[in-house]
C-alpha cells in the first residue's frame, strides 16, 4: 500500500438514475479535485468494468477504481449481492465501497456494513450538499493508503439471480 496525496483518485459510480449520474459528474467537475469519475448503470456493468470486458478494455479511459460508489436500489436490490461479490474477491475486497441510498434505514445500514461497505451515505437533496460530499470524499480518501490493483484482475464471479438479503418494508425516516 502507498500514500500519495497528489495521486488522482479513480471513482467508479454504479447508479441507474441518469439524473443522479449527471449531478455526480457535475459535482466532480466542480470540485476542482484531481478525482476521476467513471459511471456504469448497474451491477452487471460494474463486473464488466472491473474485468476490463467489452467497451471497458482500455484502462487509460476506464482505470481500475480506488473507490466504488454503489447505489442502493430497492426492491430488486442487486446492490448487496454485488457488494458481497466484491468483498469475497481476492482482488477487489480491499477497494472501499461507499453505499449511496435514497433513505436512511437501520436494517439496510447494518446489512451494508455487515457485508463490508466502507460508508453509507444518504443522497442529498441539493447540489451544494452533493458537492460537499464529493469534496469530503476526496479529502478523506486522498489521505488514506490504498492498495495497488493489478491491471489484469483475477476472475470475480458474475451476478447470480439470487437475493442475498431480504429487504422487508421498514419505516423510512426523513433526513
Automatic annotation (TrEMBL):
PROSITE patterns: RESPONSE_REGULATORY (PS50110)
Domain named Response regulatory: residues: 10-138
SUPFAM superfamilies on file: CheY-like (SSF52172)
Coiled-coil segments on the chain, per record: none
InterPro entries named among the record's database cross-references: CheY-like_superfamily, Sig_transdc_resp-reg_receiver, TCS_response_regulator
Origin: domain of life: Bacteria
PANTHER family: RESPONSE REGULATOR RCP1-RELATED
Protein name: Response regulatory domain-containing protein
